[in-house]
Design a protein that fits this description.
With 205 residues, the chain is an alpha+beta fold. The protein has one domain: Cyclic Phosphodiesterase, Chain: A, CATH 3.90.1140. It has 3 helices and 9 strands; from the N terminus they run E-H-E-E-H-E-E-H-E-E-E-E. It has helices at 29-46, 73-83, 120-137; strands at 19-26, 51-52, 59-68, 91-100, 108-113, 153-159, 166-175, 177-184, 192-198. The strands form 2 sheets. The protein has a 5-stranded antiparallel sheet with strand order 2-6-5-4-7. The longest helix has 18 residues, at 29-46.
Length: 205
């Protein structure tokens, strides 16, 4: 997968590469509301200041396809082809820890993370998607790139303060689809959805 990059908290994209295409699972309405309220609580508890992520943008990234100088039409097309071949069930996602990802600059993400069974379905989807992307970006021939590492997380805000890991009331939902999203740096509205794919029905409630 030559142009597919793993999620790497703390690594900022180059400022002259404003176009970002990535796979993610968007929070549903209830989870988004709960995460928004949790962010309020964390800001009050830790006296945080900074920029919040808008509720309609709350998501957990599966795979980043990197940042580009122009909208990557060809890359997006290959990504759509890959997504159509993903074979994974719907799953419950549970995020129950809050912490800051460390960065050298002052834009430290405050995130929700999960562990164990709470993110098992997400990791299965990640592995399946990486496999189909590997095939699509290598011309249909499986290549030994392996599965890039991922830390399942939802970013709530960016702040210069550091919040140590601590348990919080869980934010969770049943993930029944995943999306290919487009973000233009500096845009304020919802992400542009380039495609969405349903997961198989599963007894995951």
């Amino acid at each position: 997968m030559p142009d597919v990059q793993p999620v790497q908290p703390g690594i900022a994209s180059a400022p002259r590469l404003p176009h970002h295409v990535f796979f993610a699972v968007l929070a549903d309405a209830d989870a988004g509301l709960k995460a928004d309220r949790l962010c309020d609580q964390e800001m009050a508890l830790h006296h945080l200041e900074g920029s919040r992520v808008r509720r309609e943008r709350l998501h957990v990234t599966l795979v980043s396809l990197g940042w580009d100088a122009e909208f990557p039409e060809h890359k997006a097309g290959l990504a759509r082809l890959a997504a159509a071949h993903v074979d994974a069930p719907a799953f419950p996602l549970r995020l129950d820890r809050c912490l800051s990802f460390q960065r050298r600059n002052a834009r430290r993400p405050l995130v929700l993370c999960g562990h164990g069974a709470g993110v098992a379905g997400f990791l299965e989807l990640h592995r399946s998607l990486c496999g189909t992307l590997d095939s699509a970006f290598s011309g249909g021939t499986s290549a030994p790139h392996g599965v890039p590492s991922v830390t399942p997380h939802m970013t709530l805000m960016y702040s210069p303060s550091v919040v140590e890991p601590h348990p919080v009331e869980p934010v969770g939902w049943t993930v029944r689809e995943f999306q290919l999203l487009y973000n233009l740096r500096g845009s304020a509205g919802p992400y542009r959805v380039l495609g969405r794919w349903a997961l198989q029905d599963s007894q995951c409630m």
